Prior knowledge:
Number of strands: 0
CATH architecture of the largest domain: Alpha Horseshoe
CATH class of the largest domain: Mainly Alpha
Order of helices and strands: HHHHHHHH
Number of domains: 2
CATH topology of the largest domain: Serine Threonine Protein Phosphatase 5, Tetratricopeptide repeat
Low-confidence stretches: none
Radius of gyration: 20 Å
Number of helices: 8
Amino acid sequence: MATRAELLLRDGKASRAQELAISALETFTGSRTRYDITHARVTLSRAALASGQERLAVQQGALARSAVQVMGYGLLCVLYLEDVFDLAGRIDGALTAYACGDALGVPWENRLAANTASPGQIE
């Protein structure tokens, strides 16, 4: 069901995709199939976002992300990288990039670089 919902979503039928994803989530929750529950949550999150229901999208996305982190569902990470990528990893990467840029004197907030490191200094 989650796969059919994804196909509807790709066809621009977000409302119908959301209905199908909710049905899939209920069915999979009843059968206690954890991977399928997580997949349905990812799909529901995407469909809710496409339907303009940001709160539902964020809630379901967070639940899916935490399940992926705990259970290690690698396929969902590959299929839905932008939805289930580890938030801590994103923050870590952003802070590392900021710190490296700052250490090298890269300008920020539209300011001109006064003492930017040369390629030789970087090496």
